[in-house]
Amino acid sequence: MNGAFPIRILHVVGAMNRAGTETMLMNIYRNIDRNKVQFDFISYKPDSDYDKEIKRLGGRIIKLSKTQSIKEIYYAIKKYGPYYAVHSHTMFHCGVVNVAAKLAGVKVRISHAHTTQDRSDTLIRKLYIKSMRFIINALSTKLLACSNEAGRYLFGEKVLNNSKFTFFPNLIDYSKFLKQQRKKINKFKEEQGLLNSIVIGHVGRFIEAKNHQFMLDIIEHVLKKNNKFKLLLVGDGDLRPQTEKSARQKGLYDNVKFVGMRSDIPVVLQSMDLFIFPSIHEGLGLVLLEAQASGLPCIVSESIQPEADLNIGLFTRISLADGAEVWADKVLELVGKKENNVDRIINSFETSGYSLQAGILKLMGIYNMSEGI
User: Fold this and answer.
1) Under 8 Å between Cβ of 230 and 273
2) SS3 of the chain: helix, strand, coil, percent, to 5
3) Mind listing the domains of the chain with CATH numbers?
4) pLDDT tens for each residue of 34-83
5) pLDDT tens profile 75-127
6) How many CA atoms lie within 13 A of 354 on its CB side?
7) 3-state DSSP call for residue 205?
8) What pTM was estimated for this model as a whole?
9) What is the DSSP letter of 297?
10) Residues 176, 284, 95, 58: what is their CA dihedral angle, to the nearest 10 degrees?
């Protein structure tokens, strides 16, 4: 480092919306010493949820076109830099970012794996993946992943033996989720028609991977045995209209609450009695850490990585192949089994390495600038 502050790190993302990776980055960004380290973000959408906050914290949002080309990223780095590090979170597109960063003279180039599956398996896509994986491994100075499986998927099967590879846990400020004022919880439940209901919850984008149709099947089976249940779905996305239509067709609409994007997730989670996460594929699932911090029993699919389990007895894995009725039976079994021992939850975060401060220290070490926090 040259001693000039603040040192700038460029994060390359799709858009800074309220999704897992982006929320983790904001958790980190809010808690670093921004007089010494500043984050900028390349984004490919005109407006995103966190844009205003980033600007308020001193960061810059660099809006690029959807072409996502080497040339475009190179010129952005040269225009807004110098950057001490470029940290990419865009799957195999990390290869494009690495080429641009290398050409621009950035010495610390980081590729970060956040998921375990790609969107297609066409021949052209397979060729693209193979070439990008080669470039990522050749040009990245560090390879990070939220789980070993995510690392294998993006970087290749042998990555765990690569000296560049580091497991980097998803980070949350867990203290925000431990307890909430009962008045706020009751107000939210009253607004959403959830008072006197048993609430099964989910937080996630309405995309195919999150498997919302399966959630409707689960609540349908649950209601056959107990009509006091309601399903609370938090988030937005392309498949929300289709999911709402399906809920109406199934006669479930009065028992399924669609509340859209929320900024008060700690309150929302504390309003739930149980959390379900039947993803078809997933990197780790940041919201699962938030749910466990809230003391919620979590029922998850086999695609959820073991690193997401905080080992406090709140994690139950069931195969999607077992069907919605088996999931429904497990929901009925686990309701009423929230963890109310806050000290136990805190200890699980601290010992597992998911605490925010430990993660920030680790990240600054990865950037080779531990004194910069």
Assistant:
1) no
2) 45, 15, 40
3) 7-171+355-372 (3.40.50.2000), 174-350 (3.40.50.2000)
4) 999 999 999 988 888 899 999 999 999 999 987 679 999 999 999 999 99
5) 999 999 999 999 999 999 999 999 999 999 999 999 999 887 766 678 888 89
6) 29
7) coil
8) 0.78
9) -
10) 0
